[in-house]
Specification:
5 helices; 2 domains; alpha/beta; 5 strands; Ribosomal Protein L15, Chain: K, domain 2; two-stranded parallel sheet; 3-stranded parallel sheet
């Protein structure tokens, strides 16, 4: 193989359709935009427009409140942690941190921290270092001989 023989795979690069270039092209005259009118023109933005009538999304009353400072926790059940320990993805001897849960594949990513829920059974003696844990989760971990450390940074943020 030489440098001048290198070619792309057939069909890897598709030529773009040149619209509005004559009737023989198949996309001439109206260039696929249908016939005349507002939508055939450029710069159309009519998504919520109701012909000058007050749009529905402005007629209805506003309701509720969205707290922009609310923390978004990843929730992990004790059953998932136990399954990861059983599968050998988590080492029960090492502290189970947020990074360890991501590495083990229990979580995809750490958001604002990890919240441990008390669903499921836990038989492994684990040390959890998480942002939040429910009372039932703490009780279940301590019953199995483990320890739960709630991180101070997350407590101050709440």
């Amino acid at each position: 193989m030489k440098l001048d023989e290198i070619r792309d795979n057939p069909g890897a690069r598709k030529k773009r359709m040149r619209v509005g270039r004559g009737i023989g092209s198949g996309k001439g005259k109206t260039a696929g935009r249908g016939v005349k009118g507002q939508k055939a023109r450029t710069g159309v933005a009519i998504k919520g427009f109701e012909g000058g009538q007050m749009p529905l999304h402005r007629r209805l009353p506003k309701r509720g409140f969205h707290n922009i400072f609310r923390l978004d926790y990843n929730e992990v059940s004790l059953a998932k942690i136990q399954a990861a320990v059983d599968a050998g993805r988590l080492d029960a001897g090492q502290p189970v941190t947020e990074a360890a849960l991501v590495t083990a594949g229990v979580l995809r990513r750490v958001k604002d921290g990890v919240r441990v829920l008390g669903n499921g059974e836990l038989s492994a003696k684990v040390t959890l270092e998480v942002a939040y844990a429910t009372k039932s989760a703490v009780a279940a971990v301590e019953k199995a001989g483990g320890l739960v450390t709630v991180l101070a940074a997350a407590v101050e943020a709440e």
